[in-house]
Write a structure and sequence with these properties.
This protein is α/β, with parallel strands linked by helices. It has 3 domains: 228 residues, 3-Layer(aba) Sandwich (Rossmann fold); 173 residues, Glucose-6-phosphate isomerase like protein, domain 1 (Rossmann fold, 3-Layer(aba) Sandwich); 31 residues, no CATH class. Strands 1-12-11-7-10 form a 5-stranded mixed β-sheet, sandwiched between helices. Helix 8 links the parallel strand 5 and strand 6. It is globular.
Length: 466
């Protein structure tokens, strides 16, 4: 298994000196890289970065696999209730490795349950998915480390009532609570009411939780080889956990993104050329945004830094976004994710009645999507637009595990370069507190007052039509 990073089109000799990077700028970060790596290693030894070691914790596989086998035998539908890091990683890996799973019948999917990841509280959307499921054959995975996530709490309360109406006192058998091992509302419910549960390891934040029961349990239930997923990450770890900048793809890609940011390229586009990897870009968007978008630097100064991540899909977004990338502001780095070999391919047939299409005859769709990526990269480069490409040989448990691990390490290292804490998310908290206040949660009267004062200072400007 190999993953390669081709950053030729980010360099000054390819796109010019205004936005391109010089080799000296990369080598100039070597000493800083060694210093950062040493700090990371010390924090790992102190147990402050547990996500680093998750792929090596293979003892969790047996426990998860046993529970997954039980759920596979009992239920036709598995529904994840979670948001953000409790949902995006699962969706990304599920669609990467079980693309179209829910669209085929039970026999074709080997009797495995369908998996639905519900990450919003839109009542219309939530009810549509409930209507697709028989409550007697449905299990909910309720995922929240703190247990206070308002969206997940509300989903859980609705789902519990829905199940209870159908099965009565046995409703607890239809829930697995995945939460903190010691504290929080969900942990209290486990202890008090006897729900089954799985632990989210202490110190692992949601966006770094793919290699925990948060994602491993639902993925195992739909037939993903979670041992191979973890092994892919573990095998790749030696390649991204050393201090040589120019041979470490995670550190190097973080450094390239950082150097591009310093040149005004503040938007980072991740664009897989693979339907299977579409949602990897969506997961990465949260990882990059929530980790690096910070007001306060680690030295306490006000910075307001952070590259803005954008997810795109090749070739789809060649026809929706690339016009902007090509001719709009010089503020973007485009990272392509290229799958070198597809599992299947389709020959493009000749159509004699349309001679204008004859040039396609004898080629394949796989060849076409590769050529389109190469053509887009060349066009961006010709227009002095920074771009690079991450190549993976095929979409497998091993390569997806390695790719996710690489992005996680890359994000942590980037936090040190930007001098922010990549493991917190203080900017999310105030919105949560206003939500609690507006929903009448006890103890948030002051926030309700703050909200009222904000509204009182506004002059209403509302346009109503029709």
């Amino acid at each position: 298994m190999q993953i390669s990073l081709d950053y030729s089109n980010m360099m000054a000799d390819a796109i010019g000196s205004e936005f391109g990077i010089y080799d000296g700028a990369i080598s100039g970060l070597s000493a800083q890289t060694k210093n950062i790596h040493q700090k990371i290693q010390l924090r790992r030894e102190r147990g402050e970065l547990p996500f680093f070691d998750l792929p090596h914790s293979l003892e969790v596989v047996e426990e998860i696999s046993s529970l997954a086998s039980e759920l596979q035998e009992t239920f036709d539908n598995l529904v994840v209730l979670g948001i953000g890091g409790s949902a995006l990683g699962t969706t990304a890996v599920f669609n990467a490795l079980r693309y179209g799973h829910n669209l085929i019948d039970k026999q074709q999917r080997g009797g495995l349950p369908r998996l639905f990841v519900l990450d919003n509280v839109d009542p219309d959307g939530f009810l549509v998915y409930l209507s697709l499921c028989d409550p007697a054959r449905t299990c909910f995975l309720v995922i929240s480390k703190s247990g206070t996530t308002v969206e997940t709490t509300s989903q859980f309360l609705v789902a519990r009532k829905w199940i209870e109406k159908k099965v009565g006192d046995h409703y607890r058998d239809h829930f697995i609570l995945i939460t903190d091992p010691e504290s929080g509302i969900l942990r209290e419910l486990v202890d008090r009411e006897g729900y089954r549960s799985c632990n989210i390891p202490t110190g692992v934040g949601g966006r770094f939780s793919v290699f925990t029961p948060v994602s491993l349990l639902p993925l195992a239930c739909v037939g993903v080889d979670i041992a191979a997923l973890l092994k892919g990450a573990a095998d790749f770890s030696s390649l991204v956990c050393h201090d040589d900048l120019e041979s470490n793809p995670a550190y190097l890609n973080a450094a390239l993104q950082y150097l591009a940011y310093q040149r005004g390229l503040r938007i980072s586009v991740l664009m897989p050329y693979s339907d299977h990897l579409r949602d990897i870009a969506d997961w990465f968007r949260q990882l990059w945004a929530e980790s690096l978008g910070k007001k306060i630097s680690t030295d306490g100064s006000v910075r307001h830094v952070g590259p803005t991540p954008v997810n795109a899909l090749g070739t789809t977004d060649q026809h929706s976004q690339v016009q902007l990338y090509m001719e709009g502001p010089f503020d973007k780095v485009v990272t392509f994710v290229v799958v070198d070999e597809f599992y299947q391919d389709l020959q493009i047939p000749n159509y004699g009645a349309a001679p204008e299409t004859a040039y396609l005859s004898g080629h394949t769709m796989g060849e076409l999507i590769h050529v389109e990526q190469q053509a887009t990269a060349a066009a961006l480069t010709r227009n002095q637009r920074s771009n690079c490409a991450i190549h993976i040989p095929r979409v497998t448990e091993a390569t997806v595990g390695a790719l996710i691990y690489m992005f996680e390490v890359q994000t942590l290292f980037a936090g040190y370069l930007f001098e922010v804490n990549p493991l917190d998310q203080p900017g999310v908290e105030e919105g949560k507190q206003f939500t609690y206040a507006l929903m009448g949660r006890q103890g948030y009267a002051d926030k309700a007052g703050e909200y009222a004062s904000i509204k009182a200072c506004m002059k209403p400007r509302v346009l109503t039509c029709g």
